[in-house]
Specification:
96 residues; alpha/beta; 5-stranded parallel β-sheet; 5 helices; 41% helix; globular
């Protein structure tokens, strides 16, 4: 039996929101997280397929991680969550 891989979107700026909206339209369940969990919860109300989590939990639970964060902060994010990211697919949506 094949199970769907869990996807986490970290950051809900323009790119993160666009990815989340498309995942939601597809019917795919996904996790959203950001620095301000209260804001993430508010934005995520529009997506019935979204689960809100803090960043560390989202990274831990996901198989695929999409860090939709400000490009200069990507390196810091990767270092901070290096252990939890081992063996996961990381989708880079940044364009410096």
């Amino acid at each position: 039996m094949k199970t769907e891989q869990k996807i986490a979107i970290i950051g809900l700026g323009n790119i993160g929101k666009a990815v989340a909206e498309n995942l939601n339209k597809s019917g795919r369940k996904f996790i959203v997280a950001g620095r301000d969990t209260a804001k993430v919860k508010e934005v995520a109300k529009a997506w019935q397929n979204a689960q809100v989590a803090d960043i560390a939990t989202a990274v831990k639970e996901a198989d695929i991680v999409i860090p939709a964060i400000y490009f200069p902060l990507v390196g810091e994010f990767l270092k901070e969550h290096a252990e939890a990211l081992k063996g996961k697919v990381i989708v880079d949506v940044s364009n410096p």
